[in-house]
Each structure stands twice: as C-alpha cells, then as structure tokens.
Amino acid sequence: MHERFVGTTVTEVCAMADAALRLTTLAEEVLGAPLPLRVRAWDGSESGPPDGPVLVVRRRRALRRLLWKPGELGLARAWVAGEIDVEGDLYTALDRLSGILWERGPAVALPALRDPAVRAGARGLLRLGGVLPPPPPPPEEVRRHRTGGQHTRRRDKAAVSHHYDVGNDFYSLVLGPSMVYSCAYWGGPEGTLEEAQRDKLDLVCRKLALREGDRLLDVGCGWGALAVHAARGYGARVTGVTLSREQAAHARKRIAEEGLADRIEIRVQDYRDVRDGPYDAVASIGMAEHVGEVRYREYADRLLSLLRPGGRLLNHQIARRPEADESAYRVDEFIDRYVFPDGELSPLGRTVATLEEAGFEVRDVEALREHYARTLRAWVANLESSWRRAAGLTSPGRARVWRLYMAACAVSFERNRIGVNQVLAVRTADSGGSGMPARTRSWSERPPG
C-alpha cells in the first residue's frame, strides 16, 4: 500500500482514490457548469482546467463543513481552518469563483435538497468526506449569542472590539505607517499608499472647509490619522470617538508625540453619547457601515443635532447595489461571522434619502470605487509580504480571514458589486443659507504650494 494510505481502511482508500476528479464531477453536477478552477485533493490527485490558480483541498474535513453549511459559510470555515487554499493568484481564483458565489445567487449558495442534482451531490460528499459530526467552527468565528440584541450599545462595542482590537502591531503591518483604515485617494498610476492616504485625509479636510479654531468631531476616529492631519494642517480642534480601546491608546500616543494634545481629545465613547456640540464639522469615515439600517435614521439625527447651522458632514461609506427585491437581500455570512459582526451595507440612494429626511441638505456625492480596489490590493500586498509576523501577532486563522476578506472585497469593488462614496451634506441655517460655494467641486483642485 502507498505510504499515504498507511493506517487507512480499505473503504476510506476507495473513497479517496482520484478524489479531485470526483470532487470536480460532483461540483459540475450540482452547478450545471464546469468548475472554473483546477482542484488538487488531499490524495495528490488533480482535475480541472490546466491553466490558472489551483484550489487545494487539504483535508476531507472541508467537505464535511460544506455538507453541514453549504455555500459561502462552509467554504469560509474551511479556508480559515487551513483545510482549503489557493495556489497561484488569489484574485484570479476569486474572480473565477465569483460567477458561482455571486451571479448565481442564493439558490446555489443555499441549495434546495429537493433538487435531484443537489441530493446526488450531497450523497457524493458524504462518501468522500465521511459521516462524522460537523467540525466545530474555527475559534476566529464570532459567537454572537452572548452579546445581546443587535445594535445595542453593548453588542456594537463587542462587534467593534472583534474587528479593531486585533492588535495595533498587526494593523500597522497591513495599513502601513499612516494607520488609515479606509479608502485612499490615488492621484494617478504612480504614487505610494502613504501618499494616497495623505491625499484622502486632505480631501476630507478641504470638503469640510476646516479653518483655524474650527471644532471637528471625528466619529469612529480609528488610530487618529484624520485628527492629527486636521489639527496640524488646518488648525482644527478635534474630538475623536471610538469604541476600540486599542485604537484610542494608539491615537493618544501618536497625538502626544506630535505635540497636539492641546488640540485633540480622543474618547472611548459611543457616538450616541456625545453631548458637547455644536461642532463646525463632523467626519464619519468608514464608520456608518457599523450602524445598521435599524439605527441609521438615529445616526443621521444625532449627527445633525451636533452641528451648528451651516456646519458640514462628510459621510464616507461603502454601499451595496440595490436589489430588485430588497426583501431578498442577505448579509454576507463570511463577513458577518469573521470580519464585521452586524455590519450592514445600504444602497447609496437610501443613505442620501435618510440624511435628507433627518434635515441635511446633500451638496455633493463623489464615488471612489476604483480607489478602494487599489487600496485593498495594497493592504493585501503588505499582509503577504509580512505573513509570518502577521500570523504570529494574531493567529494563522485570523491572518487568513484578513487575506480572504480584503482580496474578495477588492474583486467586489472591481466588478462593481459594491462601491464607496463620500457624501457632503450641510445643516442649513433657519434662513436656508448653507454657506456653501456655488462651485462646490473647488476642493478637488490641489491647494497651491
């Protein structure tokens, strides 16, 4: 017997022989189309198209995960556990798989067992993967039942901690020295990530028309990059709020080193508890995705109440495409379980409408979709170049979560499945005055000098 079968029963050997061919055949029967990736199975066999990346199924346990959680979540658990992997270009693999995971919709992701092809596929997976109980989820998965009702203060704090308290050293590897965790603003094909993030921070400050002495509220202030830029470059007095203690600690240290402690205050505080308005400007950069649709009007009302008449809001937010039937919309299970617990994306039109319903006048919308795809690719490159250290700072599973999440998001932006937009809005005065220039896009021009 071949050494790879030592200690394995005859029945198991028969089940494993030519496992890759059996897997691709099963997949094609269920999908009704050829599998777009080559497969290499745990027995060393390969099957599928000879060109491009290879989907490596390292352990039979991955099949049991798919049996118990068909579709996206089962695949995600197997990926995080290291039971499946991709050899070759990850972006190409995800782009090819997107036709299965996205375009074919939930009917494939959550197959109906009454479909004969699906039933046959399940039986085939049982023979290949075994009938043992479902493997436990990887420890990186969120256990939400302990954290209260959705979008309560307690549960929001737990969700933010899960995502942002991974460790500042880990984030510095991924994000680079700027520690800016949102879409950069690329000026052309050349330029570094640091330059693009600096330009994004400057764009935000110019859209908000910050001047010496203005009060800026930075909602979801992260590691303090915008606060430092606004205080140092524009003379603003900044209050930053975050629910992440690790972010706050890093931001305070950075502010002290910059000599800006007299201009910036960082609080570990829920934005709903801010009471010291009015502010001249509010920036919400990559924070509204955590708010949730049930709280979005409350979010808009709160930010409006914190602004003086004529004060501006810059809302920078990822948006999904609207569904033909909005009741059919479902949250991405991988993102919800492993990345952003309770995070929700809204269509851009709904965001604009809610801000207007709250009393804001929306003055400008700028789409930055292509900018975010390039930013994510830069972050993935940073992670991959420091892989051993990144896995050591967190866990191999957590590092795998981040690699898949960022690469998949890059493909989603490139395929126009999601976008990201900066919405500039103003709280008009009682007289209707906005204080806005007639030519609103003047900030797009770089300032002299």
UniProtKB/TrEMBL annotation:
Region (Disordered): 129-158, 429-449
Domain Polyketide synthase-like methyltransferase: 170-425
Source species, domain of life: Bacteria
Pfam (any one): CMAS
InterPro entries to which the protein is assigned, alphabetical: CFA/CMAS, CMAS, MeTfrase_dom, SAM-dependent_MTases_sf
Entry keyword Lipid metabolism: yes
CDD domains according to UniProt: AdoMet_MTases
Keywords annotated in UniProt: Lipid metabolism, Methyltransferase, S-adenosyl-L-methionine, Transferase
Family of the protein in this entry: Belongs to the CFA/CMAS family.
Protein name per its UniProtKB record: Cyclopropane-fatty-acyl-phospholipid synthase family protein
